[in-house]
Specification:
Elements (H helix, E strand, L loop, with lengths): L3 H18 L10 H24 L5 H27 L7 H12 L10 H11 L1
């Protein structure tokens, strides 16, 4: 109790739908009908996973509903938290700059390569 499968599928569906439909994931080149189609497919898959838990007698309807509700609440909360985090200013840095700075401070090199793709990625991001 609750169904972790239902919880994960609900989280995945709602967060993906919010990213596609509200934040415009995929950029302007991703047509509206495709965004709606992807969100719809995620919804159908999510409901199918939740229904399968009851159908296969792994969970009761109540356990699945509690798990599904928990997933929806967590997805909505995470969407709001990450949206706020992208816009908040901490120590003179926007959310994106803060994440870039924090990532640089926590980065630990674990191998030697002639051209380190991670370092080149950071350098490329800094130039933008």
């Amino acid at each position: 109790m609750p169904s972790s499968h239902a919880q994960f599928s609900a989280f995945f569906f709602l967060y993906l739908a919010l990213l596609l439909l509200r934040r415009g994931l995929g950029g302007p080149q991703l047509q509206t009908w495709r965004r709606n189609g992807y969100a719809g497919a995620a919804a159908v898959g999510s409901v199918a996973v939740a229904a399968s838990r009851v159908y296969l007698n792994y969970h009761t309807v109540r356990q699945v509903l509690v798990g599904y509700t928990a997933g929806l609440v967590c997805a909505a909360g995470w969407y709001v938290a990450t949206g706020w985090g992208r816009e908040v200013v901490v120590m003179g840095r926007t959310g994106r700059e803060w994440a870039l700075w924090a990532g640089q401070m926590l980065w630990i090199r674990d191998r030697c390569l002639r051209e380190d793709l991670v370092v080149e990625g950071w350098r490329g991001k800094r130039k933008e």
